[in-house]
Amino acid sequence: MGNEPQNFLPELPSQGDAQAGPSWGNPRWPLVDDAGDLSAAMDPTDMVAVVQQAAAKAGKPADSASVEEACRDSIQAMLLIRLYRVRGHLAADLDPLGLSHRETPEDLTLAWHGFAGKEDKEVFVGGVFGFEWVKVGVLFDVLRNTYCGHVGLEYMHIADTEERRFLQDQFEKPEETIQFTPEGKQAILQAVIRGEEYEKFLGKKYVGTKRFGLDGGEAMIPALEAVIKYGGSTGIREIIYGMAHRGRLNVLANVMAKPYHVIFHEFSGGSANPDDVGGSGDVKYHLGTSTDREFDGIKVHMSLVPNPSHLEAVNPVVLGKTRAQQAMHDDLDTHEKVLPVLIHGDAAFAGQGVVWECFGMSGVRGYSTGGCLHFIVNNQIGFTTSPKFARSSPYPSDVAKGVQAPILHVNGDDPEAVTFACKLAIEYRQKFKRDIVIDMWCYRRFGHNEGDEPKFTQPLMYDAIKQHPRVSEIYSDRLLKEGVIEAGTAPAMRQDFIDHLEGEFQSAKSYTPNEVDWFAGRWSGLHKPADPETARRNVETAIDKKLFDSLGRTLTTVPDDLTIHKTLGRVLDAKREMFASGGGFDWATAEALAFGSLVSEGFGVRLSGQDSGRGTFSQRHAIWVDQNSEDKYIPLATLPHGKFEVYDSTLSEFGVLGFEYGFSLADPKTLVMWEAQFGDFANGAQIMIDQFIAAGEVKWMRANGLVLLLPHGYEGQGPEHSSARLERFLQLCANDNIQVCNITSPANYFHVLRRQMMRSFRKPLVIMTPKSLLRHASARSEAAQFSGDSHFMRILSDQKEIADKNVRRLVLCSGKVAYDLMDKRDEQEVDDVSVIRLEQIYPFPGEPLAVRMKRMTNLEEVVWCQEEPQNNGAWFFVQNRIEDALTAAGHTGMRPTYAGREEAASPATGFAKRHLAQQEALVSVALGLSSRGKSAAMQAARSTKKNS
């Protein structure tokens, strides 16, 4: 690429005369709004001329009075047409149970338009529905059949004319109506029967076992098969699904083709994985799978992402994984090959904020997947809550209007209509690369789970459901009347499938899983660490001087035609001095060296978060903005071999972190990082951290190398901008699941990022990143610390050389407080206190710490010092581990004491003076400079030695 300014929006094609340059100008804006037909407002003079000409051509009276009347009628007819296009869905026949009583809106009646009793009157409509002139009654019937049948279409909120016309044409042209061949109809019936009988079989064989069945929504099965079939015919070669537990087992079996005997094995209590793999496992309706299915000779790969019971939490994970797969398939420009499909519940779709977060990302650079197909299984109930108490809008799908996504409401008792909706959705997505929603109205035949009693709360609904025939009965009766099947066809299909299930049920008794697929495909060559302790040693992360110098030039060279900010100029001058002198490397430069070296070695690097391009603290400057044109230049993006991406994300934590987790799931060859603006913002993504990042490997056998960058440190910035809640991450640490670091050295940060990619396994990495240390004079590294035999240090010794035999008091700590301790210690000229930093807190570096403490033969006291309150931070996590290390070092019976803030409900004070006083006190206590603190610490130390 050279050093020419790079376009910051490479994947958004130019659309019209969109603004080019200003930061608020998105090529997708503004969208053109025009009705595109005669139902738009017309100049009256033009209307008269058009109608007069049409009347003469049709042999109708063309005198002024007749034309005037015809114009009035035509305008009213056009208004009628437009209102049906806008509001016809409100009168559609959608509820299979008939309990949703909705009167036809008055403006959809002939009387409202002045046509009461005038059904035989001919009106001019100028080609709409293929009519030039049409009788009012005929037009009304066509409108009702088109917009008020089993499919209701919401699309007139879409501003783009071409999109609206496409959907309009699909609905209004006779050849585009819902039509299937006899063979197609039989295939739909067979799929519905499979869905029904599978649920009934599970209910009979595993009485009382939760399965969260699809009963009542079985039309989804042929509809999802249509997604595969029609998707394959339009170029899709991979589909990534996400869904909650309702109907998941049915989708696994009848859409994803997971063998029935494997699912029966899991229902009987068997493991989903070989015994030697380990892991805690998960309930069967949370598990995922992957498979290939073939229709019409076209093979489509499919995967269902595993997820927890947190409804909709999997959505951003699916989108992130899709984005990664599109990158690997070279599909980021066309978005034709990889499709995300999200299956939702109605109450969750309306109630869960992450749904909107995902819609919000749908058209944003770096997060777009070229459109997601959303399928809502609208049971018209959420656990025990009726819709009127569960949302404030008419439909659960209304949130999708925020991104102008079209919405197809469809009656779940009409499998053909549901299948047609999916076919249309695929065609729309493939053409326009935008999200689309299918809202299938159905019902839940049983309670929230099969042991639940729904009549406690919805007696009338469940009286109706009890009397309501199953979908296959309704559809088979219809096909009988049409002559598509004979009287015995449906029963034969049913019995054949039951017999097949019985055979699979018997096979399950001898089934044993013999492999797990978590290190296949792009993950080939990676594996679980053989030994949690030794696997983290001896990883070569240093780079040679040639690459080091080359990166220095890349990071400091400004293109001739780029006008940078004057302050950035000073920053770059400082960087040039670092590379020239070989010293003083700060955090941001070390980070850029890590990123650049990985890219140069063929890895991808993806960093996203709120304001990550510049950096929250104006420290990173990964993107240089031309001060005249706002063109963007990304130095690291000019490097060969790998790919560097940095994105300022939407103002979302839950959705964006989930997206990055999903991206990392699919691509272990890319260093994927999510950065919080301040560390505590991770609170908004706690579900992703608890359910996916910390537990995904042990539950679902899905490794992940995601990195979380969480600014952390007490500088008096108040409760919300001090603590990244280190304690919460440490509470999640077990089974070698994640890594938690609180790093104080730029070089060590460089090495830990490179270590993440250089090892033969992947584990999520949580880094408490600094704020004040970004520019702290002592938090600097030398050039030699990036090359040679340098590597990541799990513990760092004191910056002051103190002979081990002279150490009487050892202060252990992590993070920024180390510099406060060392500065104060040196200021007071204390020469028997050493400070050791734990750069990695989990996996706990017990062995190197014990080796270090063993050399301190005259050690009398060990103190753990932290900035956080006692009930926060690392204290409760490290105290027993430090004691174990002391025992291993030969200091038997010695226990660490605590120095830090007192227990507190709030992470930090909001008063600057109080903060400074607290910080001074905890540092003094830790160093033994406070008489009270010193005597207490000495007394504790003497007590432990005496007891030993």
Automatic annotation (TrEMBL):
GO biological process: glycolytic process; tricarboxylic acid cycle
Native organism: Aurantiacibacter marinus
InterPro entries, per the entry: 2oxoglutarate_DH_E1 (IPR011603), DH_E1 (IPR001017), KGD_C_sf (IPR042179), ODO-1/KGD_C (IPR031717), THDP-binding (IPR029061), Transketolase-like_Pyr-bd (IPR005475)
PANTHER family: 2-OXOADIPATE DEHYDROGENASE COMPLEX COMPONENT E1, 2-OXOGLUTARATE DEHYDROGENASE
Gene that produces this protein: sucA
Name of the molecule in the record: 2-oxoglutarate dehydrogenase E1 component
Entry's Gene Ontology molecular function annotations: oxoglutarate dehydrogenase (succinyl-transferring) activity; thiamine pyrophosphate binding
Classification of source organism: Bacteria, Pseudomonadati, Pseudomonadota, Alphaproteobacteria, Sphingomonadales
Cofactor: thiamine diphosphate
Top EC class for this record: oxidoreductase
Subunit structure: Homodimer. Part of the 2-oxoglutarate dehydrogenase (OGDH) complex composed of E1 (2-oxoglutarate dehydrogenase), E2 (dihydrolipoamide succinyltransferase) and E3 (dihydrolipoamide dehydrogenase); the complex contains multiple copies of the three enzymatic components (E1, E2 and E3).
Region feature (Disordered): 1-36
One Pfam family in the UniProt entry: E1_dh
Biological function: E1 component of the 2-oxoglutarate dehydrogenase (OGDH) complex which catalyzes the decarboxylation of 2-oxoglutarate, the first step in the conversion of 2-oxoglutarate to succinyl-CoA and CO(2).
GO cellular component: cytosol; oxoglutarate dehydrogenase complex
EC numbers for this chain: 1.2.4.2
SMART domains: Transket_pyr
Domain Transketolase-like pyrimidine-binding, chain residue ranges per copy: 585-776
